[in-house]
Amino acid sequence: MEKLKFTFEVKSIDGKSNFIAITAITTKEDKVFLIPEECQAMSLHKHIQSSKTFFTVKNTLKKRYQTRSVWIKTTQDILQTYVDEDGNMIFQDQFLEEITQEQMATGNKKCSEDPIVKILEKLVESQQNKEKQCMKKFAEKFVIEKFDGKSSSAHQWMEVFEKECERFNLVKEEEKIEILRLFLEKSCTDWYSSMMIKLSLHSEWSEWKSSFLQTYANKGWTASKYALSYRYQSGSLLEYAIKKEKLLLEIRKTIDEGTLIDIIAAGLPDFITDRINKEEMVHTNNLFSELGRLEHLVSRKKMMKKKEDIKPDMKNCGICEKLKKGVRYHSEDSCWFKKSLDNEKDKKQIRLVNNSELECKLQCEDKKN
User: Fold this and answer.
1) Is 20 exposed, middle or buried (CB count within 10 Å of its CB: 0-12, 13-18, 19+)?
2) What are phi and psi of 230, to 5 degrees?
3) pLDDT, tens digit, 9 for 90 and up, residues 274-286
4) How would you classify residue 107: left for phi > 0, otherwise alpha for psi between -120 and 50, otherwise beta?
5) Is 259 helix (H, G, I), strand (E, B) or coil?
6) Cβ atoms of 141 and 165 closer than 8 Å
7) Which residue pairs, CB below 8 angstroms and at least 24 apart, start in 88-92?
8) Which residues face 159 on adjacent strands?
9) Which DSSP symbol is given to 195?
10) pLDDT tens-digit series, residues 24-70
């Protein structure tokens, strides 16, 4: 026998979990042999499970009760597992029951038309819908931010995600893979879609986790540089300290509190750190409490700066200097002697105009004479 046709079917264990089973084997002579119910699980068919063909079958079968009949080239191990020395079809020391193609087709048709089967299918569908709703409810209770590939460390985010799954008793691999989708956004959703195509929902969680960490692990120094160089600019001192702590913990979760306090304090202005006793800062909470107490200094400095900006730049009055009234500091527009100076200017202009008119008249008279 060069090849055998194996019939794969997606079955249910307890109405919740699915598994792929081998239900029948067909020879090249179109002889069909049924696999006993207790021997159908793929874990018992290791040589088939390790074949490349099964990998494709696994990606093909997505829904419960789907079936595929696929030819698989027989190796020496496969022949020894399913065919004895006399050419009989066996599995685990049992002779397999032979049926005709017509019997198999009739059995499948009856099974599909059976009202009990239809009722069970509806129950399964309703159960699956309930499971999806439960997943959404669980997701709402998860204490974790959505992952976008930029905002946080992939390793730390995955660690928190797995802890949340444990907290809600989501231990099955399919459940973890399914609920992961609800916590991804932006380009990460495209990664999830491609993983579904490559691995499918019925795959191992370790493969998904490994791919996630390899894809989104931060291998550069940009995040570290930003976290270390982040300094207080304006606003709340406490908000600065909390954000700085978050940035530092994202790049190095194992950092000790003493170093954490030193780096946070290094980004504070001198007039704040001068008022903090370093010896009393044992935990970051001590620093946060102290910064909350010193918030008024920032507000006070802002108020002083505003007053300085509002205060006009006073210069000595040019009018008072011209009139020899002494050095006085006020604007020329508000000077008391501005009117008298303007009047003198007007008089001079009038005199100049009158003189020019007289000169013109005299010149005209001289020409006539």
Assistant:
1) buried
2) -65, 125
3) 999 998 899 999 9
4) alpha
5) helix
6) no
7) 89/25, 89/27, 89/31, 89/33, 91/35, 91/36, 91/39, 92/39, 92/44
8) none
9) H
10) 999 988 889 999 988 998 888 988 988 888 888 888 887 878 889 99
- Residue 72's SS3 state is strand
| Among the listed residues 4, 11, 128, 7, the one whose alpha carbon sits nearest the alpha carbon of residue 64 | 11
| CA dist list (Å): 189 to 2, 173, 175, 202, 268 | 43, 19, 17, 18, 39
Q: Which residue has the tokens 């040589």?
A: 47
**DSSP SS3 for 236:** coil
What is the DSSP-derived secondary structure letter of residue 14? S
Contact 135, 175 (CB under 8 A): yes
Q: Residues in the chain, how many?
A: 369
Amino acid sitting at position 119: I
Token look-up 């026998």 returns 1
Q: In the numeric block, which tokens belong to residue 353?
A: 């105009």
- Quickly list DSSP for 114-172: -HHHHHHHHHHHHHHHHHHHHHHHHHHH---PPB-SSSS-HHHHHHHHHHHHHHTT--S
Residue 184: phi, psi to the nearest 5? -115, 145
State the amino acid at position 251 in one-letter form: I
83 Cβ neighbours under 8 A, 6+ residues apart: 1, 89, 90
Residue 71 near residue 4 (C-beta atoms within 8 A): yes
pTM: 0.42
Distance of alpha carbon 23 from alpha carbon 4, whole angstroms: 13
The HSE-up count of residue 116 (CA atoms within 13 Å, CB side) is: 2
pLDDT of 322 higher than 60:
yes
Q: What is the Cα 330 distance to its own chain's centre?
A: 61
